[in-house]
């Protein structure tokens, strides 16, 4: 991801919000809440900020990014938390899997011991994360915190 593309992360963060079937999507202003804002505010300014994108037909259709902070899936100092999202029209085509695998390889190559994420239990992406080696380390009533050990 180029620095010029960093502003796209807000839109992808909105797409990363799991909306159960039949539920109304939240207003975009939800991105202004401190817990969500931390995933994208000032992206690129922290030492551990990393992002990759998927492109199709000359436009960015997906993103995966990590940063160390105080997000919902934080597990330990030095373990970045991951977020991933795709344009809805690109879901179910393996794009997210390729993005995630590329990020996991990159983080392992850079010496990170692990990466974490939070995901709603009802989100079908839980199956993908399990296939890629993520394991539940903490459970809340509606979400999992998962970790993939990289070393």
Automatic annotation (TrEMBL):
List the SUPFAM superfamilies hit by this protein, alphabetically.
Acyl-CoA N-acyltransferases (Nat)
In the UniProt record, does the keyword Acyltransferase occur? yes
Q: Which domain of life is it from?
A: Bacteria
Tell me which UniProt keywords the record has, alphabetically. Acyltransferase, Transferase
| InterPro entries per UniProt | Acyl_CoA_acyltransferase, Bact_Acetyltransf, GNAT_dom
Q: Which Pfam families match?
A: Acetyltransf_1
Gene Ontology molecular function: any one: acyltransferase activity, transferring groups other than amino-acyl groups
Q: Where's the N-acetyltransferase domain?
A: 4-151
Indicate whether Acyltransferase appears among the record's keywords: yes
Xref: PANTHER family: AMINOALKYLPHOSPHONATE N-ACETYLTRANSFERASE-RELATED, AMINOALKYLPHOSPHONATE N-ACETYLTRANSFERASE-RELATED-RELATED
Q: What is this protein called?
A: N-acetyltransferase
Look up and give the organism this protein is from.
Answer: Alistipes dispar
